[in-house]
Amino acid sequence: MHNLTIAEQIKGLKNKDFSSQELTQHYLNRIHDSKLNAFISVTDDIALSQAKEADKKIASNESSILTGIPYAHKDIFCTQGVKTSAGSKMLDSFISPYDATVTKKLNHENMVMLGKTNMDEFAMGSSNENSYFGPVQNPWDVSKVPGGSSGGSAAAVAARISPFASGTDTGGSIRQPASLCGITGLKPTYGRISRYGMIAYASSLDQAGPMTRTAEDAAIVLNAMAGFDPNDSTSANKSVPDYTQGLTNNLDGLKIGLPTEYFSEGLDSGVEKVVMQSIKEYELMGAKIQEVSLPNSVHAIPAYYIVAPCECSSNLSRFDGVRYGYRCEDPKDLNDLYLRSRSEGFGEEVKRRIMIGTYALSAGYYDAYYLKAQKVRQLISEDFKKAFKKVDVIMGPVSPTAAFDLGSVKDPVSMYLADIYTLSVNLAGLPGMSIPAGFSNQLPVGLQIIGNHWSEELLLNVAHQFQIRTDWHNHSPADC
Amino acid sequence: MTWETVIGLEIHSQLRTKSKIFSGASTAFGSEPNTQACAVDLGFPGVLPVLNEEAVKMALRFGLSVNADINKNSIFARKNYFYPDLPKGYQISQFEIPIVGNGSIDITLDSGENKTVGITRAHLEEDAGKSIHDLYDDFTAIDLNRAGTPLLEIVSEPDMRSAKEAVAYAKKIHALVQYIDICDGNMQEGSFRCDANVSVRKQGEGLGTRAELKNINSFKFLEKAINIEVERQIDILEEGGSVVQETRLYDSIKNETRSMRSKEEANDYRYFPDPDLLPVAISDELLLEIKKELPELPTEKKLRFVDTLGLSHYDAEVLTSQKEVAEYFEKMIHQGADAKLSANWVMGDLSAALNKSQLEILDSPISSEELFQLISRITDNTISGKIAKDVFKLMWEGKGSVDEIIEKQGLKQMTDSSAIESIIDDVIANNPDQVQQFKDGNSKLLGFFVGQVMKASQGKANPKQVNQILNEKLS
Q1: What pLDDT digit, counting tens, does each position of B287-320 carry?
Q2: Domain boundaries in chain A?
């Protein structure tokens, strides 16, 4: 059953080949047998009762498309009555009193939540090594990282221990682990999916999205996740199309741009080879390839590592040990309570970014850092605007390398530099995808597809057409 | 050496919206602690603010009332600091671009002169919760009911030159926000709070270093706090010292200000635009709509009282200085009461009685209808103005309606000329010496005769008729 895509499982449930309870139990067994550390919490009881409810709905013909399909929820989405930790010691004891809008929407479909997936603490990281709950292993090679921050979600889908997992992407946190684990990940346009109840890292960049095996599955799930939310002022009041409708469109004449800057020094040759081969595949489908330039993309790293820390330094101020979450033992006074609760409750990378952001927002530095970064952000957007006058989609690598060894990158700046191809998309608020495109040294490599604002339909179409002609997305790690 | 005082005020006016500025929780005052704070107010992980449109409209009402520039795109910013009653670790406020820009308001000084006070800006922000330090020995209690209550912070130019001017300005704003129905003005409950920036300088010199006075919850304390602070600053300067820029807390029991934190200790608030909220876009249509809905403003009302009711500027100012007083007075006028007489009664006996009982006019035991009836009994000569004061007292004590009291106490004015004549005849007959002196030219004695007649009639004789008949009989 676990080798079926969501589209196939939907049919299976409909044809009574298996029940949601059987499907759910099967996945729960696989999760419990898995040693990848992909989950922070496994919610057997909730899953089985939701599956039971789903089976009733299916039996009485009250089901919607996704009714009864199990999924794994990144532990950054609030789930009422269930621990929501954001991968942090700070929230190890936090049971959310409410559901995130995304959670509500998936509940509304009667989907089945298997558990909450592991992640870099507060979504800060590209390797999942920054989790208080320990690193996640890459199912293709357990000595490698799964990528981050949605590493648990990516590993779970790749290892077939969940057919779909939610993710969030602030600087590449859906696309990069999707690439490193060989699955399909979509970061939609900023504002497409509600951020309400998604624990904030960098509010102007954070965006939720689906992580699945195929583009078709991503389209089905995106239908359920997307939409305006009156509780999120930054969500777009824009109707949601049926994302599965355009999947079969023909790509003849599609104009694909390859940014010069994405194929320069630092790109692993094995990754480059996979990406270029995929581009050839598109040429065979009738697409026209041309070079485009995104000259300001070199500034994306410094701009991102100002904007995101600035916002996170403020967003994470609420974790003060006063109302919920971690509180230090026997605080002597208020200052001691703050100092020790936050020093002991946050991990190194989170503290590093809070410090950077606090510094950059300080009086006398604001103009030089925050304002300057906002200007760069504007320039990056302009680059894309120009490029999208010439081409329909932009393609390139997701990450300069395939999955690297756990514990191998010690210097935070080296880790930041690996985000080079994903950050610009967040800074410009654009949709981006990673789809399985091949292997380099037995490790999966993703192809990144970037579209203009609100072009999710086209991206999914472009991805789906590739998956019709290739079978990279059907490869599975050993033991799966 | 003469010192000049320079004062600017920052007024926090709580907007009377039903729900909070960024959440759906109620803003009602006085509920059980922490029962009116939802996940958004408590700053739970993942929650997001959604701007309450009513708060925006109220800010615009204020802006239009003080002829201010309205920013068509204002920005919410985060003011970052740690405090246990600030759940998110930042306050959502407006910093670089507030919704209301430059405006002004006229105040009337004791001399009767008008003075224009500049309003620098007014911005929307959320209130913090309350820390209660004296409830438990070892703990500070936190009540987050107030967290997220909408505030309009109204910042004046440093245009005031005395504590009295500052109070006049504060009272004017206090009246205005109630006139336009955006704030209940309740200072005890903290709905209207003033911080004063106070400095002194030698005449003609640049601005001195200021201290910001906080914790002032009445107009009386505002005046006292400023005066005591001015004295303190002048003492320092005259002894050759210099004033430190700092925040000072006013202690109303000791009548002193004391240092809370100096500039060096002040927080760096690290303001930046709140990425969770879009710029507040104000359309011309909305502005027009709000302009139309604005009630008559105090200054307009005052001019109308002068122009169409013939009141003096002073009377008109006093009557319009409080919305409820103006409404009470106008209700009397609508029923047909004489304007000047109504003004005298409202500002005189009614106001004195209210003050004595420490009541607001809305709680007056004598309604505007009842006071109108009382005045009507004066103008239709049923009772004299003097008797009316006694009737007023009885009404205040709840002894009955105007007519019941007049009837029961037999206070009806004597207007029968022959009855008055016969009393006068008795008075003349009983006081031959005084009659002779009057006839010899001591005209002051007329008052004596009037007094005797009124006494004999138990105050009920119509004074006009008494004067007239006495003059005839004695001439």
Answers
A1: 999 999 999 999 999 999 999 999 999 999 999 9
A2: 6-253+460-469
**Helix, strand, or coil (residue B73):** strand
Residue of A nearest to B91 (CA): A314
pLDDT digits 0-9 by tens, B45-95: 999 999 999 999 999 999 999 999 999 999 999 999 999 999 999 999 999
Other CB atoms within 10 Å distance of the CB of residue B202: 12
B142 neighbourhood in chain A, CB within 8 Å: 322
Residue B413 has pLDDT above 80, yes or no: no
Q: How confident is the model at residue B450 (pLDDT cuts 50, 70, 90)?
A: confident
Cβ-nearest to A204 among B51, B268, B275: B275
Task: Please check the confidence at residue B1 and state whether its pLDDT lies above 70.
Answer: no
- Eight-class DSSP state of B362: G
Of B44, B84, B270, the CB nearest to A358: B270
Show the domains of chain B with their CATH numbers.
8-203+264-287 (no CATH), 296-408 (no CATH), 417-474 (1.10.10.410)
Question: Measured between alpha carbons, how far is A31 from A25 in angstroms, rounded to an integer?
Answer: 10
What integer pLDDT is reported at residue B272 of this predicted model? 97
Determine whether domain A6-253+460-469 maps to CATH 3.90.1300.10. yes
Verify whether the Cβ–Cβ distance B82 to A233 is below 8 Å: no
8 Å CB contact of A322 and B84: yes
Convert the pLDDT of each residue in A384-410 to its tens digit. 999 999 999 999 999 999 999 999 999
Q: Do A363 and B270 touch (CB under 8 A)?
A: yes
Cβ neighbors of B217 (< 8 A, separation 6 or more) are: B187, B188, B190, B193
> Which residue type sits at B248?
R
pLDDT of B110 higher than 90: no
**Closest approach of A260 to chain B, Cα-based (Å):** 32
CA of residue B328 relative to chain centroid, distance: 15
Residue to substitute from B20, B21, B34, B47, interface A, most A β-carbons within 10 A: B47
In angstroms, the CA A117 to CA A367 distance is 38
Contact between A318 and B142 using a beta-carbon 8 Å cutoff: no
Of the candidates A149, A194, A399, A440, the residue annotated as catalytic is: A149
Active site residue A173: yes
Give the minimum alpha-carbon distance from A184 to chain B in angstroms, rounded to a whole number: 26
Spatial CA neighbour of B333 closest among B371, B284, B297: B371
Residue B240 sits at the vertex; the CA angle it makes with B234 and B244, to the nearest 5 degrees, is 65
Residue in A96, A202, A318 nearest the CB of B89: A318
Strand partners, A211: A165, A185
CB contact under 8 A, B272 and A370: yes
Q: Which residues of A touch B39 (CB under 8 A)?
A: 97-98
Q: For residue range A214-238, what is the model confidence (pLDDT) as tens digits?
A: 999 999 999 999 999 999 999 999 9
